[in-house]
Design goal:
single chain, 180 residues, mainly alpha, Arc Repressor Mutant, subunit A, 68% helix
Length: 180
């Protein structure tokens, strides 16, 4: 068994001098290994521990063998893991479903135009549109609430929608195609 000072000299002369070559080899052989420096440090630790218990015939060969096994273990663990690590969060493409400022303004503007069109309707059309299309009541419920027949609710709704569309078109607002 060697003395700790002798082991430090041995490590420096026989193992650590291969640092650059080992890192380069690991990067070439195992490009999917994220942190080559960790593999190298763990390899050094294992070589150090092995040397403390038994002599090592070829330090370089043993070092590369240990590093290879560690890298393979890391790759196996990464392929089993359902999690993916990300190093550069700024580079990620995130799908944002929220409208941007321009879309929000356009939506607000569109809703205001629609509200103005509904307000411009005659009262009997407006009441039917508000209850049926905006509040979501069925034609039967609207008819009961307003004292109308279901057929009248259907006609008022259709005519009110046609009038809203005409009101919008008269102001240069296109793209609304109402369905009865």
């Amino acid at each position: 068994m060697s003395v700790p000072g002798d082991q430090a000299v041995w490590f420096k002369q026989e193992v650590h001098l291969h640092d650059g070559q080992l890192k380069s080899w690991l990067r070439g052989q195992f490009p999917a290994v994220r942190d080559v420096d960790d593999v190298v440090q763990e390899s050094y630790l294992r070589v150090w521990k092995a040397r403390a218990t038994q002599p090592i015939e070829s330090a370089k060969a043993f070092l590369f063998k240990v590093a290879r096994h560690l890298a393979l273990d890391l790759l196996r663990r990464d392929t089993r893991s359902p999690l993916t690590t990300v190093e550069d969060l700024a580079g990620l493409r995130v799908i944002d479903t929220a409208p941007d400022a321009a879309e929000a303004l356009l939506t607000q503007d569109t809703l205001q135009h629609l509200a103005d069109a509904v307000v411009a309707l005659p009262t009997h059309y407006r009441n039917v549109i508000v209850l049926h299309k905006i509040q979501g009541l069925s034609q039967r419920e609207v008819a009961a609430q307003l004292g109308l027949s279901e057929r009248s609710v259907e006609k008022y709704c259709h005519r009110g929608m046609v009038r809203c569309e005409a009101w919008l078109r008269a102001r240069g607002i296109e793209g609304f195609f109402f369905r009865p």
